[in-house]
Design goal:
The protein has seven helices and nine strands. With about 240 residues, it is an alpha/beta fold. The protein has a single domain, classed as TIM Barrel, CATH 3.20.20.370. The strands form three sheets. The protein has a five-stranded parallel sheet with strand order 6-5-4-1-9. Helix 4 packs parallel to helix 5 (about 175-180). The protein is globular, with a radius of gyration of 17 Å. About 40% of the residues are buried. The mean pLDDT is about 95.
Length: about 240
């Protein structure tokens, strides 16, 4: 592996949307990691485990328990699921959800389902209470989103919640400082590998949307894979700068 990294998944389904990966491709990817003896570490340990991969899922879709959890359990792979507390048991139709983007409306895991996977060893992280763009909130609203989200998850699953993922990767120094008051680790959407110097409150992740092709996923441990992801990161940044 060129460097340690955190993989970002969302939904495991066959819709082909930008947040989706099919169950068969997910299984193939996990098979490849196992066959090639790639270390799969927890989010908390991945920075200090050379060549390791950490597996994360955003939003807490119900299809995680249906399609992903059995495969992870088969290989003994740890994973972290970041959930939106006030939508647990509902659907991914939070107010900030972009419209007309082809993102399917999908059910989210219930509190009972989350408690079950937590007891089975899956770590549960916070993805706020309502999945807003954090930088658009007042300071009081920001604190409430983080506190309410974490407190609800801890109360319902009976375990501490120390990790966080910024919705849409949207944060400024103000939001980072707020995350530091509530969590030990926070993940963004910056497309990059990890290093031991990576900021614990701004951990980069590799969105598997860019790695659905077998060639690119298996290139994670190759120089051409690093070059591909660097090009993707540059293109995404250029697009965001044009929109801003």
């Amino acid at each position: 592996m060129t460097g340690s990294c955190i993989l970002t998944y969302h939904s495991v389904d066959t819709s082909g949307s930008v947040i989706s990966i099919s169950p068969s491709v997910f299984r193939e990817q996990m098979d490849w990691l196992a066959s090639n003896r790639v270390p799969v570490a927890t989010l908390e340990r991945v920075r200090e485990t050379p060549g390791a991969v950490a597996i994360t899922f955003d939003d807490g879709f119900r299809n995680f328990s249906e399609h992903a959890a059995p495969v992870l359990r088969q290989y003994g792979f740890p994973a972290t699921v970041f959930v939106v507390s006030e939508f647990c048991g509902g659907w991914n139709d939070w107010p900030s959800q972009p419209r007309d983007t082809g993102i399917p409306r999908l059910p989210l895991m219930s509190w009972e389902e989350l408690a079950q996977i937590a007891k089975a060893g899956i770590r549960i992280g916070c993805h706020t209470a309502t999945h807003p763009f954090l930088s658009r909130l007042s300071t009081a609203e920001l604190e409430e989103e983080l506190h309410r989200g974490r407190a609800a998850i801890e109360q319902r699953i009976g375990m501490p919640v120390d990790t966080f993922a910024y919705p849409y990767g949207d944060f400024t120094p103000r939001e980072r400082q707020a995350a530091a008051r509530h969590f030990h680790l926070a993940c963004g959407t910056r497309l990059a590998f990890l290093s031991t110097a990576s900021d614990a409150l701004d951990l980069p992740r590799l969105d598997v949307y860019y790695l659905r092709s077998r060639l690119w996923f298996r290139g994670l441990d190759k120089s051409y894979g690093s070059a591909y992801l660097a090009a993707r990161a540059w293109l995404r940044g250029a697009k965001q700068r044009l929109i801003a």
